[in-house]
Amino acid sequence: MELLEQAAIGLLAGLLGGLLGVGGSIVIIPGLILYLDQTGGGYSGSDQHLIQAAAMICNVFVAAPSVFAHLRADAVMGSVVRALIPAALVGIVSGVAVSNSSSFARQNGAYLAMILSGFLLYVVAYNTVRLFTQTDLEKEFDPEKKLPAWRVVAVGFPMGLMAGLLGIGGGALAVPIQQLVLRLPLRRAIANSAVTIVVVSCIGAVHKNVTLPTHGIAVSASLQLAAMLIPTAMIGSYLGGRLTHRLSRRALRVIFVLFMTTMAYLTFSRAWNAAASAAERQLSGGGHCAVAIVDQRMLVLPNVTFLGQLCSPHVNVRRCGNSQASSPATDFDESHADIVANDDFFVHFPR
User: Fold this and answer.
1) CA atoms of 332 and 291, how far apart (whole Å)
2) What is the C-alpha to C-alpha distance for residues 132 and 253, in angstroms, rounded to an integer?
3) Are β-strands 324-325 and 288-294 bridged in parallel, bridged antiparallel, or unpaired?
4) Which of 278, 296, 309, 291 lies closest to 347, judged by CA?
5) Measured between alpha carbons, how far is 158 from 223 in angstroms, rounded to an integer?
6) Given CA atoms 114, 95, 177, 82 in this order, what sign does their dihedral have?
């Protein structure tokens, strides 16, 4: 059942990602938050960095198949993409650096999910307004017109910044901004976005995953999670890319609005609960504690912060020399632990 649920998340992410020109992670991230919320351990802010790192890997594979469909439809604008990619690269590296700062570290990762939900609501508002406007960008569009480079940079940098900060592909921002700033039709904006995501997300995914250990998370955990999502996401992306050029412009926008509204609600509600739970633990004395018996002495380790990875929080204290150790946790599994050590004992945080 677990594999089926993850496969379904990947398929839906790919389908809507290819259809709407987004990386797919704006489905994957809320989907995994919702999935974790239903598990025994629940969703916590510390899970957010793992989820974002895996989603950024998936973005590459979700966007890639749809690019072929956009190229066949001759919808990609080379002059725009050549300026969009460098600006987005600078943005995504900056965004990942901000997401790794102390403001969003560990349990504070829930605030990244809240920012994501607010961003989605902005996109919903913009596209709802466009549903009732009469401007037809397709009719006024001139494919031979050269666009100023500064305008393209004004699209690419914020696209990359939000992608790095929130773990998204950036298309959810790049598509409407291309329409607003560059005056490009929806299908052209989606195609340009998909090509840019493939290139930029590669760099962003490497950067985010390399820095995962600073949050107490192994890179292998992110790779394993991404591997479960990618196969069905690629299938969905290819189908979505083909549908982009067959559905009406109004239908695409309606799907976009409904999709974003749902994702915003699911993301915010789970993140709010996670942040509230973390705050409650701090007010009640903070965290959990482990008790170790070392050389006939009892040592209490208060305010332990658990660095969970798709599991309920536990802490294990390992035997060391002639010492005996105990904790309010499950049996120790050394293969799934990080080690924090001093001269007397080791404390293991299961992944």
Assistant:
1) 14
2) 11
3) antiparallel
4) 291
5) 27
6) negative
